[in-house]
Amino acid sequence: MLKGRSLIEPGNFSLEELDTIFNLAEKIEEDETYLREGCRGKLLATLFFEPSTRTRLSFEAAMLRLGGSTLGFADPGSSSAVKGESLADTIRMAASYADAIVMRNPKEGAALLASRYSPVPVINAGDGGHHHPTQTLTDLLTIKRLRGKPGAKMLAESVKGLRVGFCGDLKFGRTVHSLSHALARYSGVKFFFISPDELRAPEYIIRALDREKIEYNETGNFDEAMPELDVLYMTRVQRERFFNEEDYIRLKDSYILDREKLEKAKQNLIILHPLPRVNEIAVEVDKDPRAAYFKQAKYGMYVRMSLLASILGVV
Ligand code: CP
Questions:
Q1: Atom of ligand 1 at shortest range from CA of 125
Q2: Cα separation of 246 and 27, whole Å?
Q3: pTM of the predicted structure, to 2 decimals
Q4: Low-confidence ranges of the chain (pLDDT < 50)
Q5: Active-site residue among 20, 42, 46, 54?
Q6: 133-297 CATH pick, 3.40.50.1370, 3.40.190.10, 3.40.50.360, 3.40.190.80
């Protein structure tokens, strides 16, 4: 049922379809040889118009582990975009060579536009400050694996009653936009949005929570929110989205998670971060058993394997 489908924002897949993806990802994690040759003969185009480490490499690793191949660019400066080729034409070309396209682009809406010109599935690997749905798959799988009931088949069972805090740049952080949007589809999740006033979550996110009557709290006070949380989602202040360097410098260290701050946190808290980290999590926190961000990055590979196998119709 996912064969041939694009993923532009988390809401594109039903909750049942998301469960199928998570369950397959867990099966692959359990037995890394499962589907090892599943995508043999298939090609994935990775078109990255913005820098990436995790998303691009984990998609490439996912495709290679499935027995498929990849082609693409990590720097738009090496593509014909610099000669003025339109995104629509670039996508038409990539679609004529590959079975699926993964694209990151600084323009909001670029992935949706690409999907309209592509006869093969398009996966949004981040469109400006808008959405990053495969990071959300990664985040949800991590929550399921680390906070869920063992053996639970539905994510809904794992997130019910969770108190999730988002901290940092909630204005430009596309991973926050996608994850809060995705979690709001499940009942019983309470949100804490912790940010400086200038980096508050966009109005459209807050309005959607109001419409759905979802409980949330917007605050600038990290210490006050900390004891409440089951999941803490730290984010980097997105330097590349600021119009003015002075504002970035003033806001970049608004919240730094360190050992002292964690003294007030629950013992079974999980600390997530989409990475890359700059200053917002002190390195000393890496040793804390609650720090889950490196595990989270690895789950990203398994969930992308599951997604690729599903949209390419090999399962
Ligand atoms: N989380 C994430 O999107 O990381 P990259 O920018 O390194 O891909």
A1: 3
A2: 47
A3: 0.96
A4: none
A5: 54
A6: 3.40.50.1370
